Amino acid sequence: QVQFVESGGGLVQPGGSLRLSCAASGFDFSDSNMYWFRQPPGKGLEEVAGINWNGNIRNYADSVQGRSSISMDNSKEALYLQMDRLQLEDTAMYYCTNKATGGSWGQGTQVTVSS
């Protein structure tokens, strides 16, 4: 079965950095486009970043453009999101996914930006 295990979140002050990780399994990771989503408290899901199957195309939401970097490691079937200069508005539960039909979400990893 398809599984996503997110980690790396935590409490950080504005201006700080975090590196989120996602361990994926149950599908052909090396042939899959991968994405990071987030859900702020009381709000809907927002696509934060995406990377295509071979890593040559990457895109970011305007809200994180210039402050984030998505990457993958095929040998580990892992997806990463480096987030720098974090802002209060970045507070959310972060999820990774391949957007596959019939897929499910992992537990997510919480990012809290607070003074």
Please, how many helices? 0
CA distance, first residue to last residue: 40 Å
Radius of gyration: 13 Å
Say how many strands there are: 10
Question: Whole-number average pLDDT?
Answer: 97
Strand % is over 45%
Strand ordering within the main sheet: 2-10-9-4-5-6
Shape: globular
The arrangement of helices and strands along the chain is EEEEEEEEEE
Question: What does the secondary structure layout of this molecule look like, with pairings?
Answer:
Elements lengths: L2 E5 L2 E3 L5 E8 L8 E6 L6 E6 L6 E3 L7 E6 L4 E6 L8 E6 L11 E5 L2
Parallel strand pairs: 2-10
Antiparallel strand pairs: 1-3, 3-8, 4-5, 4-9, 5-6, 7-8, 9-10
Describe this structure in words.
The chain contains no helices and 10 strands. The chain is mainly beta. A 6-stranded mixed sheet has the order 2-10-9-4-5-6, with no helix packed on it. The protein has a 4-stranded antiparallel sheet with strand order 1-3-8-7, with no helix packed on it. 29% of the residues are buried.
Task: Give a quick set of tags describing it.
115 residues, single chain, globular, six-stranded mixed β-sheet
Task: Please sum up the structure shown.
Helix content is 0%, strand content 47%. It is mainly β and 115 residues long. It is globular, with a radius of gyration of 13 Å.
